[in-house]
Amino acid sequence: MKFSNRFLVKTFNSRDTVSVHMAEDFLPEGLERLKHFIADTVAESGSKAVVLGLSGGLDSAVVSRLCVEALGGENVLTVFMPSASTPTDDWDNTKSYSRSIGCEYRLIPIERMVGTICSDLKADDPLSRGNITARCRMIVLYHIARAEDRLVVGTGNKSELLMGYFTKYGDGACDMLPIGGLYKTQVYLLAGLLGVPQEIIDRKPSADLWEGQSDEEELGIRYEELDLILSALERGRSPEEIAAIKNIPMKKIMAIEQRVESNRHKRQFPPVAEL
């Protein structure tokens, strides 16, 4: 998947037409706001440093680069936590990328931890193992954060958050989400602006929670089309309006709308009984 700095991000405006924003029109200012957000959040916590998981994919590469620019490389720790399904290339790629942006890198394999839990719980299916893998990674990050007075930085984007495409209390657990307000297509634009290597930008999106897993295949839709639907729904457009303007099947739009609503619980704190 290739995106350049001039990839079009289409959104629906109040006149029911499609407005087109070029990356250079809105991202430079947004980039500075993201860096200030990271620096301010860390300062307000009383800490100076952060830790995040580095997967070899686009989102974590973008977030780690943002953190380095906001805090300095000496205050950023990236942790690579491979499991049995992690591609072999990621072992070298994550290390070289961390070195290239000037931050600390640690390798902490988690397969033994994951295997023990899966065995004890008799969790044999790929989804259960994937969720356990994600939660084991967060155990590692929060242990480091407590021991070293760091904040855990999440790498989720807006498309994934709205779709509930993350593991609750796994990769969804963090102290801040720098790109949580950006759709996946916008993250591609930001990656180009930050100078993220093209091989990372071109990589097929995957959480690598099991062998052969693909984000878009699991979501059932390409990010370009998904983000058009999500951005239109966010601006109050009805499924009928979206279908008429973008020639997208109503069934697909309504399925996305339903998934966003059904996963609302993953984006909220647990309900508390008021007595």
Explained architecture:
This protein is α/β, with parallel strands linked by helices. The chain has a domain at 25-214: HUPs (Rossmann fold, 3-Layer(aba) Sandwich). It contains twelve helices and six strands. The chain has helices spanning 23-45, 58-71, 89-101, 111-121, 126-148, 158-163, 184-194, 198-201, 215-219, 223-234, 239-246, 250-262; strands at residues 9-12, 18-21, 49-53, 76-80, 104-107, 150-152. The strands form two sheets. It has a four-stranded parallel β-sheet, sandwiched between helices. The protein has a two-stranded antiparallel ribbon with strand order 1-2. Helix 1 (23-45) packs across helix 2 (58-71), helix 1 (23-45) packs across helix 7 (184-194) and helix 11 (239-246) crosses helix 12. The chain starts with 8 loop residues before the first strand and ends in a 13-residue tail after the last helix. The relative contact order is 0.15.
The helix tally amounts to 12
How many β-strand runs?
6
Strand order of the largest sheet: 5-4-3-6
CATH superfamily of the domain at 25-214: HUPs
Radius of gyration: 19 Å
User: What percent of residues adopt helix (DSSP H or I)?
Assistant: 40-55%
CATH architecture of the domain at 25-214: 3-Layer(aba) Sandwich
Largest sheet: 4 strands, parallel
Shape: globular
The sequence of SSEs as H and E is: EEHEHEHEHHEHHHHHHH
Task: Give the class-level CATH name of the domain at 25-214.
Answer: Alpha Beta
The CATH topology annotation of the domain at 25-214 reads as: Rossmann fold
N- and C-termini, Cα separation: 52 Å
Low-confidence stretches: 1-25
Overall mean pLDDT stands at 87
Strand content: 5-15%
Structural class: alpha/beta
